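Cobalt-precorrin-6A reductase
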Amino acid sequence: MLAAREGVRVTSSLAGRVTRPGAVDGEVRVGGFGGAEGLAAWLRQHRVDAVVDATHPFAATITHNAARAASATGTPLVVLRRPGWRPGPGDRWHTVDSPAEAAELLPRLGRRVFLTTGRLGLAAFAHLADLHFLLRSVEPPEPPMPPDLHVVLARGPFTEAGETELLRAHRIDVLVTKDSGGTATAAKLFAARRLGLPVVVVRRPPLPPRLTAVPDVPAVLERLEPVLG
């Protein structure tokens, strides 16, 4: 929506962790900046008028670096965070603060685990040799990882019917997920509810101090109006 505005130059920065990212309007750069100091230097060099942090809710390092760089350069910062998921009637949620806490809880909940926390957090579960893991991720995982692991490479959105069939086909008895929010991957929660499965939900990391988030793109544009004119 920003790229479609006349006279607005938009550069999207991608971390580079996905080899085939979706199409992005405007200019695109890939890779890190070199921490908050590197990002601040880039903002000054390119005379940036505003920063939109639209990263994944669990990309805490990027968010903290963006906050520090924006503060150092006096650049307005808007954080976009889609609302988190909330349990509904019939849900059996166990909320934890980290993948490590999820791993500690798992042996008491089931033996066949559908793990949807992403390929980069597998180390927290690598010691659970007695459990079977079904991992779904966009990219192949890298060690360390659990010894009994089956990988499915797929990108959402997913359907409730498809997720239910997946859980049944792999005889899953517990689901682990991060509170990513949004609709693209929420179907697994509905499938777990339908099958009466326990769900371990990892809470989102907190935002940096004095920083608040808006829930959707229109709210971002409203925050940017003083800059866009």
